[in-house]
Specification:
Helix content: 40-55%
Number of domains: 3
Radius of gyration: 19 Å
CATH superfamily of the largest domain: YebC, transcriptional regulation domain
CATH topology of the largest domain: Alpha-Beta Plaits
CATH class of the largest domain: Alpha Beta
Strand order of the largest sheet: 3-1-2-9
Shape: globular
Largest sheet: 4 strands, antiparallel
């Protein structure tokens, strides 16, 4: 699948992964707090804090992030959002969203990841405007039911699909807030509500070497401390994916 927001990965987190999750949430809170530090007056900040608490981010981390965004933390650099657009091995289109307080750290890290995996930097818009479409996506946990389907239709959403007990609801980006509010009014628990890049066409990788490079690239990007989300249009067949996993496991350093 091409859907890959780091803070939504559903797997048992290690201590390192939890640390990254906390850090990403902290930066999202700081960015939101830069507009207004009072969550009762800033819906974006209130939403960011709510999501952080659902991921068990400690209150002291949240308070520190709010102070940082409000400029109350002495010596703390401001945080900015950067979107990188690349083409990986085999022509796979990749979009990376990073949150950073130091471009001089993040940019070289991105270039190194793509260079070692056979990628090339694209001009701004060369990937996002042609290989993807930017939509609003809402995620709700639970099986699809007639009642939920009715709520989705009434909200004005464009489309939906259910996968592994998560319902993905798509809508026009400009209608995201309206559709989200409508679903919340039905007492549905919203897991996330955000903009997503969805590929207009997928690219199936049938060569092992190219598929391996793309796999390593996506894994490397998702592990980077500054990366919030990675989107791509690659599709790797199950048999090749199994071959990749076996290959990496056989070459993994063992103590």
């Amino acid at each position: 699948m091409w859907r890959g927001p780091v803070i939504e990965r559903q797997k048992q987190a290690t201590a390192k992964e939890r640390g990254k999750v906390f850090a990403i949430h902290g930066m999202l809170i700081a960015i939101a707090a830069g507009k207004w530090a009072d969550p009762s007056q800033n819906p974006s900040l209130a939403e960011a804090i709510y999501k952080a608490k659902k991921e068990n981010v400690p209150n002291e981390n949240i308070d520190r992030a709010v102070r940082r965004g409000a400029g109350l933390e002495k010596g703390a650099a401001s945080i900015e959002e950067i979107v990188y657009e690349w083409y990986g091995a085999g022509g796979v289109a990749v979009i990376v969203k990073a949150l950073t307080d130091n471009r001089n750290r993040t940019a070289p890290s991105m270039r190194h990841a793509f260079a070692k995996c056979g990628g090339s930097l694209g001009e701004t818009g060369s990937v996002s405007n042609f290989a993807f479409r930017f939509v609003g996506e809402i995620q709700i946990r639970g099986p699809m039911t007639d009642k939920l389907e009715e709520a989705i239709i009434e909200s004005g959403a464009d489309d939906y699909q259910s996968e592994n007990d998560i319902v993905y609801i798509q809508t026009d980006w400009h209608e995201l807030a309206h559709v989200t509010a409508s679903l919340k009014g039905k007492w549905l628990e919203i897991l996330s509500s955000r903009g997503e890049y969805l590929p207009t066409n997928t690219l199936e990788l049938t060569e092992f070497d190219k598929a391996l490079k793309v796999h390593i690239l996506i894994e490397t990007l998702e592990e980077d401390e500054d990366v919030e989300a990675v989107w791509h249009n690659a599709v790797i067949a199950p048999d090749i994916q199994a071959e990749i996993v076996a290959h990496l496991e056989s070459h993994r350093f063992r103590t």
